Fold:
Amino acid sequence: MERSQDDMVRKRRHLSAEEKYQIFIEATIAKAKGNGGISEVLRRWGIHSSDLTRIRKAVEEAAISGFKARKSRRPKIEYDQHLRLKEEKERLEKTIVEQAADLALLKKKIARPRY
Structure:
């Protein structure tokens, strides 16, 4: 029985990120058990050991870059928005100072006894 040219060509399989991560997890568990289950994982997913090596390397690089990334707790804003907020803050501070002065004058008037 002869095979046609199309049958002999292995079709390339494109795995999603989730599938690659699942392969990584399954292979890691199989390696921990130590009973040669990695080859079973490779057969089940239809990939080669070199594919698994690339997946492991990608997971390691992503984990390292994730730890290296500086994450700020402050939300990032645009510079022009920062300037607007700064002007608004200064305006509000000026208003507070004016109101504090008015309040002090009112307290003096109330505290002074009238005869």
Observations:
- The chain has a mean pLDDT of 85.
- Residues 14-68 form one domain.
